[in-house]
Design brief:
The chain is mainly β. It is 12% helix and 43% strand.
Amino acid sequence: MIPYLSEEIFLEIFHKLPVKSLGKCMCVCKAWNSLIKTPNFVFSHVKNLSKNSTRNNGDLFLVLNILPRRETSVEYSLHFDDQEFSKYAQLQLPLFDVIHNSIVGSCNGLLCLVKMGYHTSFDIRFILWNPIIKKFVRPPKPYICSLPYKISVGFGFDSIRDDYKVLKITKKNVLDKYVEVELYSLKTNSWKILDPPKYDLYSDDFMAFANGVVHWVARELVNNQGRRRYKFLLMGFDMGHEVFKEIMLPESLSYLREGKCETPMYVMPYGELSSIAVIVSVYEKCNIWVMKEYNVVETWTKMFNLEILGIGPVPRVLGFRKNGGLLLSSLFNRQVVLHDMEGSEVNYFAVWGRYAYVFSYTESLVLLDQVIVSRGEMYASDSIEGAAEILT
């Protein structure tokens, strides 16, 4: 360290620097390298950057599974949440297989990827990846790996323990009343089986993380006006306290009309992860309900009512923009679409693919002190040479 500046002053300066600038600082000397790699600094740096975005509109993280003429490939890129949805950075593809992975969620710069397949038996594998610093962790396989009838996965942050966790819920058979639940912790690099909630798993979409809780659509069989029918609700799992919670839906969504096919219904974060939204596709319309004040049932409000919009079938909602607009996936031509709700204006972006994922994203140093080796083990690395990867 330079003798006339204290460690506290250096920390104050480092906290205000973006990730790539910190990568340069880590290459200066071992003292700076070790200081920036401490878990306390990584955690506080994420919090500081979240409060002080470099752009008023912040960033959206867009992941597209491109489908070229010859073979399937994947492209990762960061885009600003501006009028043009302009590209901020093209991300380098990792060394592991990305083509067959889906994105569960994004939290503090960390992506959770999952790959599910069936050859001679059902197989499910996860990867936690920070694309900015090019580091990833392969969690061990879950205990429960039998072929499920339905499965839903959620990814989020435990702010109490400064830990990242994956929740996996499976329903083995269509007639099963209960589900099986497993929880992975990055800090312990292990899975554990949890006592399940009493509700059935309805939607097999990935869960939505907001306010320290992952959310999904559940249901229970009840007696309603002399009829046995399903009542729908949201279930949540608090990542910090590791407890389940129930959130009631608006009355119009609690008892959906039952038909031969299940009504598509899924949950998404809304308002910079401060609350949640429920999207329901009914016939040729898509209704979007927003809980304006989190965990206050009375604040459920029907905010949007999408129709076909002249772009084929009702599009899937990918994300909410800070200006009130929507990012949609056109099922007609596989393009990402911006829909301005006030003026009903539709804009196409020059990006398309078989699948598209959009998440709020913040560049971070999460996983900086962890390197994956064989069998899912992890160790800390203090090499200055490794910091140079952040600069490329």
